[in-house]
């Protein structure tokens, strides 16, 4: 082994062939230490993990000579257990799934996608949200509006218009025209063609914004007197709390 002068702080660069290494391998995965065999790591030849340990070394080592992988070490134990015994993890499913995707371990990916947690997210919720026009863009728009209104405030609110059908979309537009407020600040979701209801979509909005680290709640928006429609038919107020 030799030290690369260009990357000394990162540890040693392995220069020999992996075929000359001991079959016992020590790993440092994000600060977590593991010991396993080359054959275990290369169990699935088409995976990225196997590629790391095939042919010319593609990994650096830490100061103790352990191969270093810059990934969350906590979940690597589940990856390793699967490689050793084909045991599919039952804990931390979402996080292990991300690692399985990174290491490109196809059999584990497929088995995790059959689990209720991943199946529900991929095949149910995400398939539904894919049918809601501009869903991701609207989430980002809500966050931008809330942040713009957060100056010297504890809370900021965003008005959301949610409609499921084309008919409701037309009625919502009429209602929106009668609102005495900046219509550009109202974020509109829908319509969509799928079974989930408006309340389901509202839950998704809250879930996805909270996943970005924000503290948020929502309630029906009560409009001013003289409003032409029941405001809670379409309009909701999302409240961001900053401190």
From TrEMBL:
It comes from Dromas ardeola. This is KCD14 protein. The gene is Kctd14. GO terms for biological process: protein homooligomerization. Residues 23-120 form the BTB domain.
């Amino acid at each position: 082994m030799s030290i690369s002068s260009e990357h000394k702080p990162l540890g040693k660069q392995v220069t020999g062939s992996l075929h000359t290494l001991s079959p016992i391998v020590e790993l440092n995965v994000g600060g977590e230490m593991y010991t396993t065999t080359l054959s275990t790591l290369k169990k699935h030849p088409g995976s990225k993990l196997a590629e790391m340990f095939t042919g010319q070394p593609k990994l650096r080592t830490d100061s103790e000579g352990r191969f270093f992988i810059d990934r969350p070490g906590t979940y690597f134990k589940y990856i390793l257990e699967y490689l050793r015994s084909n045991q599919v993890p039952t804990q931390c499913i979402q996080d292990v799934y991300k690692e399985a995707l990174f290491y490109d371990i196809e059999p584990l990916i497929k088995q995790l996608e059959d689990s209720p947690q991943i199946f529900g997210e991929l095949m149910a919720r995400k398939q539904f949200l894919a049918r809601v026009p501009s869903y991701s863009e609207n989430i980002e728009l809500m966050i931008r509006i809330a942040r713009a209104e957060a100056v010297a405030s504890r809370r900021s609110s965003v008005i959301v218009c949610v409609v499921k059908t084309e008919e409701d979309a037309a009625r919502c537009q009429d209602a929106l025209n009668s609102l005495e407020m900046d219509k550009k600040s109202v974020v509109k979701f829908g319509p969509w063609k799928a079974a989930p209801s408006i309340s389901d979509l509202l839950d998704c909005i809250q879930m996805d914004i909270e996943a970005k680290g924000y503290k948020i709640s929502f309630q029906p928006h009560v409009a001013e007197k003289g409003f032409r429609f029941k405001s809670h038919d379409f309009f909701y107020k999302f409240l961001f709390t900053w401190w």
